Amino acid sequence: MTETPPGQTVTRPSAWTRAATDGLSRSDNTVSPIIYPPEESIDPDLHLWDTWFLRTRDGSIAEIDGYRVILALTSSSDLLPGKRHDVATIRYFYSSDGRNWETGGEIFADASGSIEGEQPFGSRQWAGSALYDNGTVYAYYTASGERGEDELTYTQRLAVGYGGTIDTSDERLEITGPWTHTIMLEPDGDRYETQAQSRGMIYTFRDPWFFEDAGETYLLFEANTPVPEGSPHCDDDTEAQQFNGSVGIAHSPSGDPTEFELHDPLLDAVCVNQELERPHIVVKDGTYYLFISSHMHTFAPGIAGYDALYGFASDSLFGPYEPLNESGLVLTNPENAPFQSYSWLVYDHGDELLVNSFFNYFDFDRPSLDDVALLSESEQMRRFGGAPAPTIRLAVDEYATKITGVLAHGHLPLPTEPLPESPFSGRDRDRRDGYLS
Ligand code: FRU
């Protein structure tokens, strides 16, 4: 066991239980409005999905000479959307108003797409987070598979590329290397399942999210809790035992943002759900709000969940965490468009929380996301958003949340920028009148 970080009492892991998920059901407080395609795409050449801000150590959104920066998983928009995870590349985008975004380019490559110096780990890079500290960019990512592999593998390791610097002019912002890459963490097989131990559907050890609290430096990530055959969990139900998602945490004793040690998970969902994706925390009025994204099809048999943003709260970083709104459900898609958005990221905006996500499959209400494969290729292309979704406004009152409005697609205001008084803005304004009681 590693030491508990200073000043922390351990009450973990908290559990997302089957009893809590009994209460999962859509309500006016948790269902987002239907999404229509944006008038203009952020970059027609790209599919864009999981997105995150460049931030400073204290979690503030970095402001660099008037620009804010987001990083996102991307692929060519010529690609069949279901194939995009196999070639995911992290690109950055910048904006001076939070509405209009310019494509900066591949984070680890130069303008021509070539990489000088060290190559990133993995045969492709999955989601992460990004820190701007002392003039240096730290781009955290999931190294998925092995660099140079002929056949795709699904190993996942938590990596960081660092050493990037930022130049700006009136017209543009540019992030350039050379980058140094390091693998920070791999599963230990004890607190965190290795791929070899996995009995379940989709193995996970990914999505590193940098976070500081009370002067201590942490990394949150998505993982699985080892549940060996013969475990007593959920009354020996061997099928349900294969669903064992967790939210992992690692600590950097020195504060070095590239060196972390594993700790016990903050939360797990053994016998409940396999994938607790992109975990992140927002601290508000002394309460720690832990958010994850998950899919309908990753709940254990017998649990009817949704593709949704789920949340948990605690008055300490290490828990115990209780599900928000009793079941954990914070924000989901409407019943007639159940897969319209995914991969939610919540950030603080003073009185409210704002939630970014990407526009996923629309005009599609089959029972499972897997059924996308039943569509013709041209329909798979037509019905995939692959762009930022409208930003959702969320009110939070202790352990309860409520959707209160929506901003335009990809509108990501800084906490210092006022929000419109009308709950619905942009293209959605007229359609949304009266949507909220
Ligand atoms: C969520 C996710 C992440 C992963 C990425 C891969 O949308 O599953 O957990 O990093 O997609 O594309």
Automatic annotation (TrEMBL):
UniProt keyword annotations, A-Z: Hydrolase
Extent of Basic and acidic residues compositional bias: 426-437
Record GO terms (molecular function): hydrolase activity; levansucrase activity
Bilayer-crossing regions: none
Region (Disordered): 1-32, 412-437
Pfam families in alphabetical order: Glyco_hydro_68 (PF02435)
GO biological process, one term: carbohydrate utilization
Biased composition range(s): Polar residues: 1-14
Keyword Ribosomal protein in annotation: no
UniProt xrefs under InterPro entries: Glyco_hydro_68, Glyco_hydro_beta-prop_sf
Gene3D superfamilies: Glycosyl hydrolase domain, family 43
Family that this chain belongs to: Belongs to the glycosyl hydrolase 68 family.
Protein name listed in UniProt: Glycoside hydrolase family 68 protein
